């Protein structure tokens, strides 16, 4: 299990653009592929123990916890669906790998949703270095040819603002580094503020590089829009009410090699407070909107999305649809695993809010468009499933698929 810690770090080292939640899930999937548990209880114990190892090995484990918890919910959800262990384990590994692939492109999706917020001649304030914020700025400049200027805070004590400035300069985007204390001084000429996030709490508040909270307060007083650009896999089940509710974390040990180069000065002259406080909490009332791969959300929508994640696995339905299509083509009848799936997911299938799934199925899981197009008729599906038992649901879906 100790190797999981090194596996996680090796993923981060090999790919500087990989985030902690993705690296955590990829290391857990790799562990399962190597360990090959033979029972569901062994599987759950193995995943639980390795998650604890990962969390304890990373001082700043907020975003890592989000990925680990998401994977654990996925495992628990799937154990009740398949009657055949080999089929279940194979699908678990495959869907874990699919999640990693989908999560990797979520940064680009967040950036796509954020591009319309950038207008010509905007002056944008950015705090610290965020991969997704950089991707957004780069996309707006290179693809939309938008002209804008970026002001970047120094972001002490890590000084990651200099890394952001270096990357923006290399990309040909006009930028200027300002000291953290000058935020209030320059805010009158700033049009909007973009920040990333280490994690997004249930309340819609964010955990990010220290200094984000005071920028949020200044933005509120000066009526400047404060946007958080992040990915949905960083939504975490925490409910801090104030910065003091966050655990003490030595953030410096979780930086990539590239980011650490800009923190050498800090290491030489750090004090006890800065050793432990590298992130702060910005409450939801200071945030204008969260720009995510799910779209542009209000802070209050985060709890709703977390509920959806906890009550429904985004990987189960596409996999079951694949099984449904295969078994219908082979036998013309719904399989036993499928009936089990329908029984356990009856309310999810009937729920109108889950008819966004066809897009997810088509884009992320490669199910033929003809199949998903039939499931886009949400009202028709809902009407046909109303009042049916699991066998009736299977027959109704079978009928819809043949249309």
Automatic annotation (TrEMBL):
Keyword field: Cytoplasm, Initiation factor, Mitochondrion, Protein biosynthesis
GO molecular function terms attached to this record: guanyl-nucleotide exchange factor activity; translation initiation factor activity
Main subcellular localisation: cytoplasm
A Pfam family matched in the record: L51_S25_CI-B8
Domain Ribosomal protein/NADH dehydrogenase: 330-403
Stored SUPFAM superfamilies: NagB/RpiA/CoA transferase-like, Thioredoxin-like
Top-rank taxon: Eukaryota
Gene Ontology CC annotation, any one: eukaryotic translation initiation factor 2B complex
InterPro entries documented for this protein: eIF2B_alpha/beta/delta (IPR051501), elF-2B_alpha_N (IPR042528), IF-2B-related (IPR000649), IF_2B-like_C (IPR042529), NagB/RpiA_transferase-like (IPR037171), Ribosomal_mL43/mS25/NADH_DH (IPR007741), Thioredoxin-like_sf (IPR036249)
UniProt-annotated location(s): Cytoplasm, Cytosol; Mitochondrion
Subunit relationships: Component of the translation initiation factor 2B (eIF2B) complex which is a heterodecamer of two sets of five different subunits: alpha, beta, gamma, delta and epsilon. Subunits alpha, beta and delta comprise a regulatory subcomplex and subunits epsilon and gamma comprise a catalytic subcomplex. Within the complex, the hexameric regulatory complex resides at the center, with the two heterodimeric catalytic subcomplexes bound on opposite sides.
Protein family membership: Belongs to the eIF-2B alpha/beta/delta subunits family.
PANTHER family recorded: TRANSLATION INITIATION FACTOR EIF-2B SUBUNIT ALPHA
Annotated protein name in UniProt: Translation initiation factor eIF2B subunit alpha
Natural source organism: Candida oxycetoniae
